[in-house]
Amino acid sequence: MKRLLALNLGALLLVGLLTHLAPAQGVLIVIDPPHPTPLPRPIVRPRPTPPMSYRIKEVGLHARVVDQVARVQVSQTFVNTGSRQMEVCFVFPLPYDGAVDRMTFMVDGKEYQAQLLAADKARSIYEGYIRRNQDPALLEWMGTGMFKTSVFPVPPGAERKVSLRYNQMLRKDHGLTDFLFPLKTAQYTSQAVEKVDIQVAIESSSEIKNVYSPTHPIEIKRPDKHRANISYVGKDTVPTGDFRLFYDAAQGEVNASVISYRPDPDADGYFLLLASPRIEAATDERPSKNVVFVVDRSGSMSGKKIEQVREALKFVLNNLREGDHFNIVAYDSGVEAFQPELQPFTDESRKQALGFAAGLYAGGATNIDGALERALSMLDNNERPNFVIFLTDGQPTAGETNEMKIVANTHNYNDHRARVISFGVGYDVNSRLLDRLSRDNFGQSEYVRPDEDIETHVGQLYSKISSPVMTEVSVKIEVDELNIEEGPPINRTYPGDVHDLFQGEQLVMAGRYRQPGAAKVVISGRVGDRDESFDFGAELAKHSADESFAFVEKLWAMRRIGTIIDELDLNGSNEELISELVTLSTQHGILTQYTSYLADDTASIQELAAARAGERGALAKSVRALRQLDEAEGVSGFAQRAEKSRLRNAELPSNSAPSRSIDGQALDRASAAGGENYFFDADDSLVVADAVQSVGKETLYRRGNVWIAANAAEEDLEQAERIKRFSDEYFILVAANSLSENQLLSRQQTGEELIVKLRGQLYRIE
Asked: What is the pLDDT of residues 471-515, one digit of tens each?
């Protein structure tokens, strides 16, 4: 018998995610194992230990993309963790068009010949592996051609490093070049992958504008306007999704690209707008700015906190530039300013301000209202964009202490449209107050946990806003041939208000559209001292035949859920909004502490169906849980606002693995879940929903030993067609499925059943 052990070589850059194409993956074939064994997987819930297994130690990708041509080198180190030698060969599935050139396989430096197999021959090989091993994990890669190497040995305990080099032409769609790095077969490993290292260097003859990954939190460095270096490093993680990267290139001050997705032609579609300013705007084109740093120096800030604040102030002061004006307001029970009015930035004023910052010491109460009044009164015109960076670690205890009055007062003080950016430090802050202040004053809230560095948070945010390129920004999407009586062409866009575009940053806007067809994006605002307007062509899909851009819908849903929670938090309970919250959470598997009961695998399928339908009785648990929003301070108040902010500002359509320091065991579980389906509870602890899986645009919920797709929850389960796994009927179904549908089937494991609706028919696979 042959056994297939999937080894992710992190291999092929795909020309596109099309329904009929599968991303190419590298897999190991173990020759003649003693008996069929499922692919190794990290242990998320108890299951028998396989007699043969391996772990992936490291996955590395180094790619150079010149315009649309990718030159790729991939390496992977794996270890035989079993007690016997494995005789293996390496297979490499290809999409139908297989636009790959100069492919070379190396195993520990030795080159191996590869044979190209046609798609029909490869399908029969895949089906044979799946039948003999009674494991459906490879279903999603059927239907492609395949390279196959000769056999090589892997002794017990030994390491092997497999390397692959190739060139490929990348796909371009919606004006964006699409780079895909298949990573998810790295989930088939007995332990977490120690390191995933992805480095992509992009070079373009035109100016590179938008660079966006819908799958991973990438770091982007731009040496100049024609180059961008992208990196992602993951440690002790189990990837369950591929790495995907988009970029566009164009001339001009600003560029915008639109991706649209409309799975149901009779319902609103979804769009994602990416907009970026020119990377190297001339110095005289960058608006100068006013910055007032408002810092809490009350008694609770003593020790490490006040030291970090001094360093944060130092960072901001050292990153101001000629033409900027600034000031510092320090407050406890009283309020003290560095200077009576805004100061022009010079080397001398910088040195004086650094001296003021060095003399800050903690002690006294917290006069928030007085500090904000003083700061906002210093802003006397709209010639420059105004920013107030407001930091506190407590509640108002001096001066005006009523939350609503402080918010109203601040709004009245703010005569010059200053952006109030609030930093809540530690669990003692009134987090609802900070959210209200920021929302009513064109800003945002950031939350710093007790074990996190204030300087890092302030520095990261200030780096983003330090160089505004366009201010007072307005974004419109105009659709051709739209009748006025049909209403606005787009709706529910997040963020709803765009204020500025900054140097080196980009706008990521998600929304819905009613009318498909040709459209025009209009971005207007002030560049320097003049009004400017830019327009870009776009196409809003009438119907999306595949799920290449399904991530757009989930990203929109995450932001919509965050916005709903914000509305419930600041405006009180609303049954219609709660119903929408539960429906979106159920449909997309985006869990919150208010919908965490959906992950209860002892609950009935009927309860899941009622939640998905938004039935009143099913909302009672969420209504009770949402009462926690009455808590404005303490751990619960802090955690709820931090989680709400994470959802509202999401730039990834799936919940990437948490980056902050958390309980080690919980982090292992989150990594094993691929970073998806987790949330932070009211006590600010990580909760991993083992009974929920996100697969493409669909969500699976476990009830006992049955996985049920969200799209099947409302169906009459007695009407389901029963199919036995690995039977002839099963593989007939597999042959008719799309890539995403086979991905659903691939998640079913030994001893489990799957209930799913495919192409209008309900199936129960046993």
From this structure: 888 999 988 776 666 778 899 999 988 778 887 788 899 999 998
DSSP SS3 for 667: helix
Contacts 24+ apart (CB under 8 A), 598-604: 598/689, 598/692, 598/701, 599/677, 599/689, 599/690, 599/691, 599/692, 599/701, 600/691, 601/691, 601/701, 601/702, 601/703, 601/704, 602/703, 602/704, 603/703, 604/703
Of 419, 443, 466, which residue is a domain's last? 466
Q: Which residues pair with 679 in a beta bridge?
A: 687
- Give the domain range for residue 211: 2-249
Burial of 283 (0-12, 13-18, 19+ CB in 10 A): exposed
What CA–CA distance (Å, rounded) separates 245 from 545? 21
* Degrees to nearest 5, angle at CA 593 with 589 and 595: 50
Alpha carbon separation from 130 to 252, 377, 724 (Å, rounded): 52, 71, 14
Q: Helix, strand or coil for residue 683? A: coil
Alpha-carbon gap, residue 614 to 584, rounded angstroms? 9
Which distant-in-sequence residues (6+ apart) come within 8 Å of 428 by Cβ?
300, 393, 394, 395, 633, 634
Which tens digit of pLDDT belongs to each residue from 129-145? 788 878 888 887 777 77
Domains identified in the chain, total number: 4
The confidence score (pLDDT) of residue 250 equals: 85
What letter would DSSP give residue 47? -
Are both 273 and 307 inside the same structural domain?
no
Higher-confidence residue of 530 and 263: namely 263
Query: What would the two tokens of residue 453 be?
Result: 């560095």
In whole angstroms, give the CA distance from residue 74 to residue 164: 5
Beta bridge partners of 105: 112, 164
Contact yes or no for 496/296 (Cβ under 8 A): no
- Grouping H, G, I as helix, E, B as strand and the rest as coil, residue 315 is helix
Q: Would residue 232 count as lying in a domain?
A: yes
* 268 and 153 within one domain: no
DSSP designation for 593: T
Q: How far apart are CA 516 and CA 543, in angstroms?
A: 9
Please identify which residue in the block is written with the tokens 């009748």: 483
What count of Cα atoms within 13 Å lies in the side-chain half-sphere of residue 723? Answer: 23
* Spatial separation of the C-alpha atoms in residues 298 and 367, rounded to whole Å: 9
DSSP for 97-128, written as a single string: S--EEEEEEEETTEEE-EEEE-HHHHHHHHHH
215 touches 200 (CB < 8 A): no
CA dist 499 and 76 (Å) reads 44
Instruction: Identify the CA nearest to 133 among candidates 44, 45, 52.
Output: 52
Type of residue found at 569: D
Q: List the structure tokens of 396.
A: 């108002």
pLDDT of res. 102:
62
617 Cβ neighbours under 8 A, 6+ residues apart: 610
pTM: 0.89
**Residue 559 in domain:** no
259 and 189 in a common domain: no
Q: What does DSSP assign to residue 12?
A: P
Is residue 208 within 8 A of residue 175, CB to CB? The reply is no
In a domain, 658, yes or no: yes
* 395 Cα distance to chain centroid: 32
Token pair, residue 335, equals 């309020």
How far is the C-alpha of 288 from the C-alpha of 320, rounded, in Å?
Answer: 10
Contact in structure between 669 and 580 (CB atoms under 8 Å): no
